[in-house]
Design a protein that fits this description.
Helix content is about 25%, strand content about 25%. By secondary structure, the chain is an alpha/beta fold. The chain folds into 2 domains: about 190 residues, Quinone Oxidoreductase, Chain A, domain 1 (Alpha-Beta Complex); about 130 residues, Rossmann fold (3-Layer(aba) Sandwich), CATH 3.40.50. The strands form 4 sheets. Strands 3, 4, 5, 8, 9, 16 and 17 form a 7-stranded mixed β-sheet that branches. The protein has a 6-stranded parallel β-sheet with strand order 12-11-10-13-14-15, with helices on one face. It has a two-stranded antiparallel sheet with strand order 1-2. β11, α6 and β12 form a beta-alpha-beta unit. It binds NADP nicotinamide-adenine-dinucleotide phosphate and zinc ion (ZN). The site of NADP nicotinamide-adenine-dinucleotide phosphate (NAP) has 31 residues, from α1, α4 and α5.
């Protein structure tokens, strides 16, 4: 065991503050990582504030981790001391159910172990990347092939990148398709970049008219202000696929009406209360679908990292010190982030 300095919420109301946690000793299959950077996902905020009603305290969020390997167990062959490595949203799964057998650990039928707040159904709590150091089974550690100067901006790929890449791949997004991304936040801006790199015609839906220029720069071909009914109507029945990343409950029907026959609206945003009822007739008259998608498996996360390295895709980030996290959460709630906060973990030593 080793003591590690972290930032934790002690309950749903408390701001995050310094807190010492214990990391396990490095076992034969483990990789120990000194954390360099950790992205700030909206799920961190949902969890720290118990918005999903399943938080174990103390809660140390953070599942967009990039760091340097400081030790490896005797069975570890893929990593050596000094390597740069990544850790995303999961640190373990049962490894014997059908989903794990298909490299879909995120759908582990026995419940994967989250990088933080897992396992939620009894057992020990896990502590995430808002910390100096982490020890992870080698099967859940990712290779980073981006250049050394990109590492901070790579961190958000470990959640925001894979959560958008996986459904875009699942629904076979590519050239000749019109694809919508709803919400230009951490996930949304990665969705725009990745869908554009896959060759789709990307339309970004935003509630923030001032993000129009940025969306075009990031790779969108068109931008629609979703509160403007006329702008929305101009795209009726024209989309092959829409990916919704919004973190708050909102009316899905205006987006469903933009889908072609047989097309899918996929939800990845995870608000703390349900969206208003969907229009059943809008679904049945065009055989439209509403789906959901959860992060991505480890093999697919590596595929996404390699795809992004090949296409020179990283996140657009604002670097913060660990001490700024509570202020960053408030700004995230106001959609005031371009487009992902990343914590420089060197600040935690201060
Ligand atoms: P974020 O950076 O806060 O972005 C969310 C975006 O949603 C905002 O930038 C804003 O975009 C839009 N938005 C916010 N409030 C809205 C409202 N009331 N009505 C309409 N649009 C609104 O959050 P994130 O880190 O990308 O995460 C987004 C959601 O995905 C969170 O709920 C998170 O927990 C969830 N998530 C799910 C998975 C998964 O596996 N499914 C993985 C990671 C995160 P505009 O200003 O452009 O409108
Ligand atoms: Zn996340």
């Amino acid at each position: 065991m080793s003591s590690t300095l972290a930032y934790a919420a002690q309950n749903a109301q408390s701001p995050l503050a310094p807190h010492v946690i214990e990391r396990r000793a490095v076992g034969p299959n483990d990789v120990a990582i000194d954390i360099l950077y950790c992205g700030v996902c909206h799920s961190d905020l949902h969890t720290a504030r118990n918005e999903w009603k399943n938080t174990l305290y103390p809660s140390v969020p953070g599942h967009e981790i990039v760091g340097r390997v400081s030790a490896v167990g005797s069975n570890v062959k893929q990593f050596k001391v000094g390597d740069i490595a990544g850790v995303g949203c999961m640190v373990d799964s049962c490894q014997h159910c059908a989903s794990c057998g298909e490299s879909l650990e995120q759908y582990c039928e026995n419940g994967f172990t989250g990088t933080y707040n897992g396992p939620v159904f009894g057992g020990e709590n896990t502590f995430g990347g808002y910390s100096q150091h982490i020890v992870v089974d080698q099967r859940f550690v990712l290779q980073i092939r981006h250049s050394a100067d990109q590492l901070a901006a790579v961190a958000p790929l470990l959640c925001a990148g894979i959560t958008t890449y996986s459904p875009l791949r699942q629904w076979k997004v590519g050239p000749g398709q019109k694809v919508g991304i709803v919400g230009l936040g951490g996930l949304g801006h990665m969705g725009v970049k990745i869908a554009a790199a896959m060759g789709a015609h990307v339309v970004l839906f935003t509630t923030s008219p001032n993000k129009r220029e940025d969306a075009l720069r990031l790779g969108a071909s068109e931008v629609v202000v979703s509160k403007n009914a006329e702008e929305m109507a101009a795209h009726a029945i024209s989309f092959d696929f829409i990916l919704n990343t919004v973190a708050a409950p909102h009316d899905l029907n205006p987006f469903l009406n933009l889908l072609k026959r047989d097309a899918t609206l996929c939800l990845v945003g995870a608000p703390d209360s349900p969206h208003p009822a969907t229009d059943v007739f809008g679904l049945i008259f065009k055989r439209r679908r509403i789906a959901g998608s959860l992060i991505g498996g480890i093999a697919e996360t590596q595929e996404m990292l390699d795809f992004c390295a090949q296409h020179n895709i990283v996140s657009d980030i604002e670097m913060i010190a660990m001490q700024d996290i509570n202020q960053a959460y408030e700004r995230m709630l106001k959609s005031d982030v371009k487009y992902r906060f990343v914590i420089d973990m060197a600040s935690l030593q201060a």
